[in-house]
Amino acid sequence: MIASLIGNRVTLREMKEMDWNDVHSYASLPTVCKYQPWGPNSEEDSREFVQQVIADSNEIPRSRYVFAVIVEGKLIGSGEINIQDFIDRKGEIGYIMHPAFWGLGYATEVARILIEFGFTQLNLHRISATCDPRNIGSVKVLEKAGMIREGTIRDDFLIHNGWRDSHLYGILEHEWLEKLSSR
Ligand SMILES: CC(C)(COP(=O)(O)OP(=O)(O)OC[C@H]1O[C@@H](n2cnc3c(N)ncnc32)[C@H](O)[C@@H]1OP(=O)(O)O)[C@@H](O)C(=O)NCCC(=O)NCCS
Q: Range of 164's domain?
């Protein structure tokens, strides 16, 4: 169990079984899943998602960290970092917010917290993320969090309306440290 990660406005804490209902309030919406290879979730999907997150948090070694995003005591989304490779110290981040809270800077704060956690506590050397090129909100989040676009993966996922490309973003440990010291 990781202690909560505290930002200026958001707190990231580990998921609990009872969170499935709040997760379902956004994961069941077509607008949230528009560019995703999953969803919209049934209640069963959202329950299973939270159960899997909790099961994965107990794996040793642990490679998956999914946090509930809390603002003013309310769960408004989730943020995730996965260790893809322990030898080469590579990880990947992702995030989802309830549409009622879009455009307020929360996902950008979540991405920054996940990146800091990955470099300072998970000992990563490289952190990546992918997003649909049409997902302007996510492109902005990744660029504001200091990630660099490295290329575009063609036909990366088969989603509800056809094959989906992905922009690949990355940030290296030394780039993150340089950005920190220039702030
Ligand atoms: C992508 C997503 C996480 C952005 O969350 P958010 O909390 O609104 O992000 P921020 O407020 O930090 O926004 C960053 C920028 O994107 C803009 N933005 C957010 N949502 C947008 C949208 N739907 N369309 C266009 N721009 C959008 C914000 O206005 C902001 O712009 P600015 O920097 O010019 O002010 C959110 O839309 C979401 O959960 N989408 C569904 C799931 C998803 O796509 N997850 C990402 C998977 S790669």
A: 5-181
